[in-house]
Amino acid sequence: MSRNWLQFDPKRAPVVSVRIAQGVFRALIDTGAEVSFVAPNTSLRLGLPKVGNMDILALAGGRLSLNLVDLPRVGFGNTELAPCKAVVHNVTRIGLPIEVILGINAFVGCRMMIDYREGRIYLVE
User: Fold this and answer.
1) Sign of the four-CA dihedral 32, 73, 82, 18
2) What are the start-end ranges of the H helices in 19-77?
3) For the chain, how far is it from start to end, CA to CA, in angstroms?
4) Which of 23, 34, 63, 84 has the highest CB neighbour number within 10 Å of its CB?
5) Beta strand 15-20 with 23-29: parallel, antiparallel or unpaired?
6) Tens digit of pLDDT for each residue in 6-50?
7) DSSP code at position 94
8) How far apart are CA 19 and CA 25, in angstroms?
């Protein structure tokens, strides 16, 4: 059983560098998010096709209807995550230098372990 991991600053949120298409992007790993998110500029840069809309509940209690796109395979260290759906939204509003939020739908079929002490996210195959 091989282990694959990415490093993050253990004093901060788990933000890592991932590969999407031919680019490298900063992504927040958010296991509390049901769906992944991608910034509008990143979606345009990658040419991600709109596949519909998705209603999202905002923290303030409102409901937003946002564009849904197909996020291609994401390179996570030496592993590639399967394609998944992502909502197009301004992810920089949360105050982190990120372009993508990888929610639990990006890790379907994976076993993940987050070691906050060492600042590592492991994908166990």
Assistant:
1) negative
2) 40-46
3) 6
4) 84
5) antiparallel
6) 999 999 999 999 999 999 999 999 999 999 999 999 999 999 999
7) G
8) 6
Amino acid at 24: V
Is the pTM higher than 0.90? Answer: yes
Q: Which residue has the tokens 């998010």?
A: 33
Token readout for 85 is 């759906």
Cα dihedral sign, 28-94-87-69: negative
CB proximity list for 85: less than 8 A, separation 6 or greater: 35, 36, 51, 54, 68, 69, 70, 71, 105
- pLDDT tens, position by position, 41-67: 999 999 999 999 999 987 778 899 999
Q: Which residue do the tokens 């002490």 mark?
A: 117
> Could you give the CA distance from residue 85 to residue 2 in angstroms, rounded to a whole number?
27
Identity of the amino acid at 73 = R
Q: Are 27 and 102 in contact (CB under 8 A)?
A: yes
Report residue 43: phi and psi, to 5°.
-60, -45
As a residue count, the chain comes to 125
